[in-house]
Amino acid sequence: MTIESVPQFGFGTKAIHSGAPIDSTTGAVIEPISLSTTFAQSEPAKPLGIYEYSRSSNPNRDNFEIAVAALERAKYAIALGSGSAATALIIQSLPINSHIISGGDVYGGTHRYFTKVANTHGVEATFVGDLAADLEASIRDNTKLVWLETPSNPTLSVTDISKISQILAAHEQKTGNKILLVVDNTFLSPYISNPLVHGADVVVHSVTKYINGHSDVVMGVLATNSDELHEKFRFLQNAIGSIPSPFDSWLAHRGLKTLHLRVRQAATSAQKIAEFLSKSSGVVKVNYPGLKSHKNHEVVLHQHRDGLGGGMISFRIEGGAKAAAVFTSSTKLFTLAESLGGIESLIEVPAIMTHGGIPKAEREANGVYDDLIRLSVGIEETDDLLADIQQALAVATA
Ligand SMILES: *Cc1c(COP(=O)(O)O)cnc(C)c1O
């Protein structure tokens, strides 16, 4: 019996025990790091065990993949060298002259890949602000894939995954064309949402964020229930070579074991901070899925575990870019830096940092104004984080 095959075990039990066998030769409770690049064979083409060469597969990567598959309720997971490598691999799996439809405010690097790289191998992308409303009208004969990030980055609008999946299923019924639904679940982590359960074909993560959670590994992962997709992606991963190292796989697996504790704590603090900000003068608008006033709060209640809003907040501050610069330079616990999902709290100004590469008009059409501030709430004490936000707001609005 393996832990991951017991359906009644809860998330935390699976996080700790999935892909974590006791070492059969030494009894080690924690797996060793398997650095060997090659594995001995008894006769030509007869490996002693299941491994041959570490690009093709490696024990630490296998174990991490087993754990992610268990947490995402997937049959398969494939770990990659970064979240961006996962995006690239999925898009490279499409035939030349494919069309893809992407949600409007996606991760900056995803936008860059779709507009500046995918086109060089014959894949064209259309961006749609509100997929739930406008997806159908954007579908073409050669549309092969829909890319959805929920909550979106950095404005945190939430999309109903099952609604998108139903639109694509109806299209397939009518035309016979299957369009894949890929959901980037980085912002919520598998603890809060499992997109495959809501009808996605593939879920992707930047492991760099919540899954590893300690800001010391760059890595990505994708997961699916489809045998056919899994085989295709596994072939490409080996052919392209976009793999994580054994050490990074081991570290990310260690990080994953506390995912439920970290995400629950971050979401609890974020909820309090968002509630404070939404009542404060000097704050124009707060985007946080856990607020009752959030425009997609109904979807949050059925799509997110316990209606949790996650650890990410964004808000507009009165006083424009200048006030945003003062606020983000005045926090003492929130470090001014890109990235998110770590144990330590971070703060940034998307318009000139993470989303600086997107043209201003397009950026503002998606709500990314110069006065927008994004928080990644970490797992320091809630009261300390709240006090830090309060004092920075006092400085910025003085
Ligand atoms: C960071 C991030 C990525 C890219 O992942 P890397 O590991 O940095 O390559 C993709 N999507 C989202 C939502 C992200 O936050």
TrEMBL record:
Pathway: Amino-acid biosynthesis; L-cysteine biosynthesis; L-cysteine from L-homocysteine and L-serine: step 2/2. Keywords: Amino-acid biosynthesis, Cysteine biosynthesis, Lyase, Pyridoxal phosphate. One of its GO terms (cellular component) is cytoplasm. InterPro entries: Cys/Met-Metab_PyrdxlP-dep_enz (IPR000277), PyrdxlP-dep_Trfase (IPR015424), PyrdxlP-dep_Trfase_major (IPR015421), PyrdxlP-dep_Trfase_small (IPR015422). GO terms for molecular function: cystathionine gamma-lyase activity; cysteine-S-conjugate beta-lyase activity; pyridoxal phosphate binding. GO terms for biological process: cysteine biosynthetic process via cystathionine; positive regulation of hydrogen sulfide biosynthetic process; transsulfuration. The modification N6-(pyridoxal phosphate)lysine is found at K209. It is an enzyme of class 4 (lyase). Its EC number is 4.4.1.1. Its cofactor is pyridoxal 5'-phosphate. Pfam families: Cys_Met_Meta_PP. Belongs to the trans-sulfuration enzymes family. This is cystathionine gamma-lyase. The gene is CYS3.
